[in-house]
Amino acid sequence: MDSLDQIISFRLKKLQKLRDKGVAPYPAKANRTMQVGEFVLKFPALKRGGKAVALVGRLMALREFGGLTFAQLRDGYGETQILFKKDELSKRAYEDLALLDIGDIVQVRGTAMLTKKGEKTLLVNKLVLLTKSLRPLPEKWYGLTDQETRFRQRALDLLFNPEIKERFIVRNNLVQALREFLLKRDFIEVDTPALQPVPGGALAMPFKTHYNAVNADVYLRIAPELYLKRLIIGGFERVFEFARVFRNEGVSTQHLQDFTMLEFYQAYADYEDLMKMTEEMFVYVLKKVFGTTKIKYGKTTLDFKTPWPRTTFRELIMKHAGIDIDKCPKVEELQAAIKKKKIKLTYSGKAGRGKLIDELYKEAAREKLTSPVFLTDHPLDLSPLAKQKDLMPDKVQRFQLVVAGMEIVNAFSELNDPIDQKERFKAQAKLKKAGDSEAHSMDEDFVKALEYGMPPTAGWGMGIERLLAILTNAESVREAVLFPFVKEK
């Protein structure tokens, strides 16, 4: 078997021969009259009519039988067989077939025909080389399970695994359906800064960089929240953004260092309004994209039919960990209860009571939540931007949508009391100083904006990749990103 270097050398020689013959191996323009998928779909009518069509695509196979050469042609919309016959092509064009390789991209013109075996085929009478491939396509890519190799060579992964490409077609349709749902409800789409002087809007560790032109340290945003709320203060009543956000945390089957968040904010609404709206949104989007509210995930079928059940942090943790968090108002009491139950938490950093409750929930309960469920009554110290509940001031007006053990949506009635907000930022700053790297930073500028007055507002956020992973039955959220980050070899 020839080595890779030899194969590339052979192809370079073919490239030079093509140039010597006056063939432009990388022309700028191509002409096609239909996509390959359309050719296959309309084949019966095309065969009856005998009309010539022009297709473009990549050669995925080449087989020569005397004066006949069969090939598989694939574009972004399908694949079909094409046939080169010596008496159908010019002498020069047929000679040039010897200089073609699997992987080359060509333009072919011809008519529809059936082979003796009944295969739909384009009988080619004109051939134009569009791109000469210098590196051979791998022979052993189908069924490749090594994620790192697939992610490093994503172009090949998409080329050989149609289901991977289909996932991102679904992503496009999903995003468009979400956008359509919001636009129909008078929301407007906006953009907010990705570089921020103070990272805020979520409890997460940011990426830090330096802005040379102004000689200042800045952060890649962990959320667009505080800027979207500035827009509400400024008079917009319904805004949304598909925002790329960056969180400097571990990579897992549920976490990414950069991902897309859909966030929207609605003035004069509360978190109860958004629970109802979330149910309406999911039914609308799933029917639009999949035609059903039932989605196969792993060995189960998730049914998004509404209404969805609701449960609280306290109920979940009591059920699955045997701890009543309301009877542990101090962090030391909660730590003692966790130790008594011999529950080991994966989080190793210093944590306040709210963070500890969140980690306990994740360890003991979250993975057991399969069907869509609303999780409510989050602890106050876990939600520095949410409005307190009137009758339970140690809890906030917040919900999360949990599906298949993953938090898909996070939403709450927004805190609009600037004095309360400042005090909560101060409490978070103390936690950060004590070692909680994910605690919220103090944002004086945002507090100042709140002092001008923000109407009652509800805010909502969802990670697109997590949702896509569930809806397309992916084992890891990394499969829901075209180019997930991989370490250099």
Question: What descriptors fit this protein?
Answer:
single chain; 489 residues; alpha+beta; OB fold (Dihydrolipoamide Acetyltransferase, E2P); BirA Bifunctional Protein, domain 2; 3 domains; eight-stranded mixed β-sheet; five-stranded mixed barrel; 15 helices; 18 strands; 33% helix; 25% strand; elongated
Describe this structure in words.
Helix content is 33%, strand content 25%. By secondary structure, the protein is α+β, with helices and mostly antiparallel strands. The strands form 4 sheets. The chain has an 8-stranded mixed beta sheet, with helices on both faces. Helix 6 packs across helix 7, helix 11 (331-340) runs parallel beside helix 12 and helix 13 runs antiparallel to helix 14. The mean pLDDT is 91.
